[in-house]
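This part of the workshop introduces the protein records we will be handling. An example says more than a description, so a record of this kind follows.
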Amino acid sequence: MNSIQNKDQSSSYNSAVNQRTICQAEIIDFTEDKDLILKIEKGTTDNNLDPIYVLGKNDPSFNIGEKLLVEILFSSDHNTLTKINFINKINESTTSHIGIFKKSRSGGIVYSIQKGSRKKWSINPKFENSAVDDDIVEIEDRPQGSFKGKNYHKIRNIIGNLNENKSLSLLAIKEHNIPYQFPNEVINEASKIKDFKKNQQNLKNLFFVTIDPTDARDHDDAVYAMKDTHKDNPNGYIIWVAIADVAQFVEIGSSIDIEARLRGNSTYFVDRVIPMLPENLSNNLCSLKENMERPCIAVKIRINSNGEKLEHNFFRGTMISKASLGYEEVQDAYEGKTSSKTEPLYKPVLEILFLAFEALLKSKSKRQPLALNLPEREIQLSKKGEVQSINFKKQLSANKLIEEFMVLANICAAETLSNKKVPAIYRIHEEPSLEKINALNETIRSIDLKLKKLNSVKTADLNRILTLASTTDHSSLINLSILRTMTQAYYSNKLSSHFGLNLQKYAHFTSPIRRYADLIIHRALIATHDWDTTLVSNEQTPDLKTLSQHISLTERRSMNAERDTTDRYLARFLKDKIGGEFYSLISGITRFGIFIQLEEIGADGLIPLSNLGSEYFKYDDNENSLTGKTSKTKIKVGMSARVSLLEADETSGGLRFKLLELNGQLFDKLVSHKKTKKKKYKLRRKKRRS
């Protein structure tokens, strides 16, 4: 995308935004120069002309009829479209045009990286673009000619090589069309920002600390707590949550703002981070670094001894983080193993943080948010990019403390903006559909968990199932099944509830360095409190509906890219373990195979039906099971399985296995034994008849 410099940058919140909007467009034709003629959705502009988008050199290929998400710019004095910026295609699949190059006698072949795909493309030797074996390439979607009935394609771009360090995330970046290089004007604009104005409220005397992963490069939240000494709140606490004031650095309509909106969020891969903001902001000026003055937006929250919120107030201030701490060292201090850094902090700071946290847990227990137990995988890489280890992250109280403080701060932001009827973007999570509830009922029934059938669902109902399953061998399966029952959370300008958290009002406020939704909330709070007269909240607000749809899309895009990269690293880790045996859980059954999850590292794989031997297995849709036609062996979700690894494809992240043992019994014997019994029985019947 070619970023735009806004000539009238900060005259007002609305005048800047009204010159730009994000909308949908459809490709209706091409010009003679092969640029796009677009049809913009109704109501965007009064201009009756069909606008033209001039193709950039890094743009993907386009076809007539495709729908795009674009940003359009208007002139400052009237509603005339002046420029279009391409954001991404809507509902497109870009994976079919990214592949791995292999040299052949008759030219090159590019193999698809899409999981489960056997697609490949022949490359004309004239258009190999100097590609070598294992190069990650992007090819033209249309053939560039044919020879002897075979279509040949052209390599447009060489992205990297599969054997290079950090190559696997490059696959996902290109596959999902994630912007990963900042335009020069964005970098230049960010480099010119040297300082910030000190906000009105002086919060430098409060003992804020940041608590993050040990390797965190940016710190966008800090916390502090104290005992509430007011007589009307015995044993209560005052909690402070301070968030980096990103809005001070990212002006509406600036090149940085446009690029951040395009990205929607940061993307976190195993081997790299694609940040939403340039490094000078994300890792420097916006980061709440230890012992450095930083502007912030902070919320002061009073809770009682049961963790119930009594009141809250927002402030725009200047703060200093007194210490930058890691989760592990805070956890150690909580367990009595203080270090030279945490020893002087424990009594005055950390102990009270944990006391306030324990009070919040009482309120959380009463509220009953969904209590899934799904440990997160942690992949450790060497400097050469090789997988050193794969472990599950420990569930630390220090992590949970920060999670609860952030949830509380997000609730405060949502309540403030909704109560004052200020246009905002909310985080929405709808309750599961009846179809998914029925599927969960079938899973529960298939493992003989003694529970009444669910007709409607509340989080307390699901938590009861999770508690009952926690003492059985089916705990992992039930956690996974309930997760699959959930709908995808999204952003919306319409206020609605958050099912998973069991909250009526919720917004994202605590991570403006890495989420554009949070930056929108910050700007709305600034306008609401009149902290900046150039930010005015009235009816002429940004198109929050379209913006919500866009950042929901970019969030899903990042999640898919992150998951695909993790799968590829897992496959790379297992690549030299072909033939190895693993214990697993059957997590899903389909007409074409059995999905399993390895116990040790949590990797997901497939046992194709073709790998179950000569026995024919019939799929039962109602029971979600497979039954052997001859042996009557039944395979159900939740069964344990010992498997052998047949294939680990690091280009797609696909893992293929053979079933060796089912619920502790050898699978071959289980099937063949029953066949033998049946044959002998038939022979005996024939003898009696004779």
